[in-house]
Write a structure and sequence with these properties.
By secondary structure, this protein is of the alpha+beta class. It is 30% helix and 25% strand. It has two domains: 114 residues, Hypothetical protein ph0010, domain 1 (Glycoprotein, Type 4 Pilin, 2-Layer Sandwich), CATH 3.30.700.20; 73 residues, Hypothetical protein ph0010, domain 2 (Dna Ligase, domain 1). It has a five-stranded antiparallel sheet, with helices on one face. Strands 4-7-5-6 form a four-stranded antiparallel sheet. It starts with 6 loop residues before the first helix and ends with a strand.
Length: 197
């Protein structure tokens, strides 16, 4: 389950993500101080959103704890500036965006006996989901379903779509569905206060 991060560490994570993103879009190296605790291996995603609309501008991360958090955070923030769904982020755009860091638990497979059983095991607002089927993979963070007002079935349909599969792919008995939780820390405005969501 989720182990609560110290709010100061959450703030440090978001500040570090912004410093890395600024370095990436300006080409200037900036020092990023991160707490000792960030040497622990963790999955993490960095989300860049337009302010105040909240429209997505970039979101990249590592769901598995294969890198120390400080390294995963650096790579995620750098990659989020070049999210292939969008043009590369510019310095002017970054100045008008908020950054959000989601630190993940280790994904675990949801054992289920069918669609209704699966639906009953997903908690909106708590669970992020990963779907794997036929060599395709899709991931949606825990906050996505809440932000869009989806129920569990809609969440799974959008997850299937994210994996490039038909919206009912989640119903297939050979579909592997994993869940994870996330601690979310976000700027309230560009380069502003950092809060736990």
């Amino acid at each position: 389950m989720l182990s609560e991060m110290d709010p100061a560490d959450g703030k440090a994570a978001v500040k570090a993500a912004r410093a890395v993103a600024e370095s990436e879009v300006t080409g200037r190296q900036t020092k990023t101080d991160m707490p000792d605790r960030f040497s622990e291996k963790k999955g993490v995603f960095v989300t860049i959103s337009k302010y105040p609309s909240g429209d997505l501008r970039g979101c990249i991360g590592y769901p598995e704890p294969i890198f120390p958090l400080r390294e995963a955070l650096r790579m995620s923030a750098t990659a989020a500036c070049h999210d292939p769904r969008f043009n590369d982020l510019t310095k002017d755009e970054l100045d008008d965006c908020t950054l959000e860091v989601t630190i993940l638990t280790v994904p675990e497979r949801i054992e289920n006996t069918g669609p209704q059983d699966l639906l009953s095991k997903i908690e909106i607002g708590r669970d992020g989901l990963i779907l794997e089927l036929n060599g395709r993979r899709g991931l949606l963070l825990p906050q996505v379903a809440s932000e869009w007002g989806w129920d569990a079935e809609e969440f799974l349909q959008h997850l299937s779509n994210k994996a490039g599969l038909p919206i009912d792919a989640w119903r297939r008995p050979d579909a592997v569905i994993e869940r994870f939780q996330g601690e979310i820390f976000s700027e309230t405005f560009p380069n502003g206060d950092v809060v736990r969501k």
